[in-house]
Amino acid sequence: MLPPRLAALVVKDGVSLGLLAEGDRALVLALAAGAIEVGRSYREPEVNDLLGAWLAGPGTMLRTDHVELRRWLVDAGFVSRDGFGRAYVRGGAEAARATALLGEATGEALSTAVTGLRAARSAEREARRQAFAVR
What we know:
By secondary structure, the protein is mainly alpha-helical. The protein has helices at residues 4-10, 22-33, 44-56, 66-75, 92-102, 107-134; strands at 41-43, 80-81, 87-89. The protein is 60% helix and 6% strand.
């Protein structure tokens, strides 16, 4: 369900948006944008709460905060902001950009896929750790 490159990124820890290649950063930002409902206008505190929750869950691979993530999403064109910086919207054009990168899956389905990949990777690490301890 996730593009292979994104699947490789979401199982890492401490990923910095600014150090990612442009294509990788676009994949991660498209994934993060899925936390914001298309067509709904949000006030800044609401977007901050959504992005904070996303960073604590599916976005845990990132080493950033909700403020930096919000700025990246706006600057990269995955979310638009009004001229006063008070309203944030993920409109049709922004959603289409994310869909072009990630496919038709919903933000919830993508988040579930990320959580599953991270859990599988964690289980693999634990199994290796236990196998090593037995030796």
